[in-house]
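Q: I'm building a small set of examples for a reading group on sequence design. Run inverse folding on the following structure and report the sequence directly after it, with nothing in between.
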């Protein structure tokens, strides 16, 4: 298994990149979230990878974070979801947005992604419910440092016994930049209504 590749980025043609590692060019398909974060060609780059072996090909998929790769692997476990659809899902939303969508059971957000129909979206929500958290290695709180207060508020609500959907809905009432204590207070107020 090839877990990570580090080398020189020599080509970028969405959704594929080529990384040169000591004279060997690896073709890697990446989601757009990873693609947009890549440096210019000729620069050093490192990506986490997932190798898929098929009868007719060995295919590499690359990700900027381990959380993205873990989400990709969770998506592949779902019946009827192949690498192309999994990349499309990760191109359409971040890992944290996917986690929030699953927690809130929002079919409409998934249906907007190319290649995901209503039945596929419902299957995704059903099979990933409860699997997108700390126990699965896919962190729903994989957000920028400034948003860590939001994940603390979400974790506090879950610890208080609210389910993921209720907590996610309450989080929508918490303004960005709110402190953890203010966020918890506002979320609890929203849940009391």
């Amino acid at each position: 298994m090839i877990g990570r590749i580090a080398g020189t980025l020599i080509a970028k043609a969405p959704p594929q990149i080529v990384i040169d590692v000591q004279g060997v060019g690896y073709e890697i398909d990446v989601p757009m979230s990873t693609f947009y974060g890549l440096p210019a060609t000729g620069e050093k780059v490192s990506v986490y990878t997932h190798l898929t072996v098929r009868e007719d090909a060995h295919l590499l998929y690359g990700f900027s974070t381990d959380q993205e790769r873990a989400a990709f692997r969770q998506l592949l476990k779902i019946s009827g979801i192949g690498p192309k659809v999994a990349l499309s899902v990760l191109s359409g939303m971040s890992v944290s947005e996917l986690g929030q969508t699953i927690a809130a059971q929002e079919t409409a957000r998934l249906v907007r992604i190319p290649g995901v129909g209503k039945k596929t979206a419902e299957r995704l929500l059903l099979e990933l419910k409860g699997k997108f958290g700390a126990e699965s290695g896919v962190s729903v709180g994989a957000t920028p440092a400034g948003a860590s207060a939001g994940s603390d508020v979400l974790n506090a609500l879950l610890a208080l016994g609210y389910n993921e959907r209720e907590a996610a809905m309450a989080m929508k009432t918490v303004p960005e930049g709110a402190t953890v204590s203010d966020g918890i207070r506002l979320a609890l107020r929203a849940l009391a209504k």
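Confidence is low (pLDDT under 50) at residues 134-147.
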